[in-house]
Each structure stands twice: as C-alpha cells, then as structure tokens.
Amino acid sequence: MSAAFPPWLLLVEDSPHDRELALHALRRGHFPGRVEAAKDGVEALDLLLGRGEWTGRDLADLPRAVLLDIKMPMLSGIDVLREIRSHPVLSEVPVVMMTSSAEDGDLEACYALGANSYIVKPVEIETYFGTVLEIGRYWLVHNQPPHVRRGVLA
C-alpha cells in the first residue's frame, strides 16, 4: 500500500438493507476513511482485481480490510475469501467475515481459509452500528499493515 493512496475499506454485502445500515453506521460515526461497497462477491472481486467497470484501476491501491458477508448469491463470501487468498497481491489484505451465520461449519471454513476475524452481526441496531464502526476504525486507524505487499511498496 502506498502512502499516496488514502486508506479505505471494502464492504461486501448483498442485502441492500444491511449494506445501507453499515454505511450509515460509518457515516454517523464520522468514519475517517473511504468505503467502497460491493453488492455481491463477483462485484467485489471485479473491484479488487480491476475487472469490469474497474478496469484500469490502480491495483496497488488495496483496501485496509474487506468486510465480507458469507451468505450471498452467485458467489458466497467463503468463495470470495478463497479467491482473495489465492492471489499473491490480495492474499495479505485482512478479511473480516461479517455475517448473520453462527454456524460452526462457516466459522471453521472461514478461519481455515485465512479469515482474520469472524463476527456475527448483532441484532440490536445500536450494537450493530457500534460494532461496524469499531471494526472499521480498528482496521483503518489502529491496525498497522505490512510495509511491503508482495512487491507492492507500502
């Protein structure tokens, strides 16, 4: 990650309602960075890999973290995680699974594939807002990313 790029997060959420709630929580909490939102796993990978409408995007500009839902049509969050971890440049991008699934199988699969965190979305709205904001601030403000990402200077 280059210092020339401002830090940002990628939110991947297929539910328009949940996506807007997360974005609202970040805006309301005066989140200190940019957030890109993808409506599904295909769109997320297109953005990360510079395909489709993101063709020509500077691929050195990586998110500080990906907040990734699991249960999505077309390409599940687990499939997206697997794909992220298979790409040398993307493999070190932190991935936080944010899901309504508390299933042990999902949790185990995500950690086995290299998820950095697994968070079950709180049901109570204020707790949800606080959780989303805490996660975003942690990865954008408090966490120190590596200085070199597989040939991309930080």
TrEMBL record:
Superkingdom of source: Bacteria
In-chain residues carrying the UniProt-annotated modification 4-aspartylphosphate: 69
Domain called Response regulatory: residue spans: 8-136
ATP-binding recorded as keyword: no
Alphabetic keyword roster: Phosphoprotein
Stated name of the protein: Response regulator
Organism, as annotated: Kineosporia corallincola
